[in-house]
Specification:
Elements: H1 2-19, E1 38-44, E2 53-55, E3 63-64, E4 77-78, E5 85-89, E6 92-106, E7 113-119, E8 126-129, E9 132-133, E10 140-146, E11 152-161, E12 173-179
Antiparallel strand pairs: 1-6, 2-3, 4-5, 5-6, 6-11, 7-10, 7-12, 8-9, 8-11
């Protein structure tokens, strides 16, 4: 019996020790890293009309269609379906219209940006953006001291010489915005 009581007392002491076990703890997690500054470029339909962005309005990858035009078969003025404005010259015709670009920034102290543009490939058309002649060889400055978070209108003009063969026209203007 003494053994049974001693055994019972040992079990009660063990249960008491378990009941008083630690039920909370603490620790810590250290985080390290780096926040990088960034800028983003987006294209927008011009607020006063401009040519129609057929895709990507508000993104960095927009598209527009010149529609189907001809020097003599398409009247001067806005071209249906594109909102480009057509004007004839003695040696060809030009399609032109504005679009807006916007550059936003985060986590940088830059006070402005520059924007360059370059054609992806050469063709027999004459491309002008914001008054600067574009080419496929060198980027051309189209905005020298841009203001962040503000839409900047840029007028695009493409002249098609009358000596150019008929057929489809396709080209891309590549832009690079750089924080100053």
């Amino acid at each position: 019996m003494k053994k049974t009581l001693a055994m019972a007392a040992t079990i009660v002491m063990m249960l008491t020790a378990t009941a008083g076990a630690q039920t909370t703890n603490n620790g810590s997690l250290a985080l390290t890293g780096q926040v990088d500054g960034s800028i983003v470029l987006s294209f927008h339909q011009n607020t006063s009309g401009g040519f129609t962005l057929s895709s990507g309005d508000g993104t960095a990858a927009a598209g527009a269609s010149l529609s189907t035009v001809s020097m003599y078969g398409t009247g001067e003025g806005p071209v249906a379906g594109s909102n480009f404005v057509k004007s004839n010259q003695s040696d060809g015709f030009t399609l032109s219209g504005p679009m807006d670009v916007q550059v936003d920034k985060a986590n940088i102290t830059s006070s402005g940006y520059t924007l360059t543009a370059q054609l992806a490939s050469s063709d027999s058309s004459e491309w002008t953006l914001g008054g600067a002649s574009l080419n496929s060889t060198n980027p051309v400055m189209v905005v020298s001291n841009g203001t962040y978070a503000t839409r900047t209108p840029l007028s695009l003009s493409v002249k098609f010489p009358s000596s150019m063969n008929s057929g489809s026209v396709s080209n891309t203007i590549n832009f690079v915005a750089t924080a100053q």
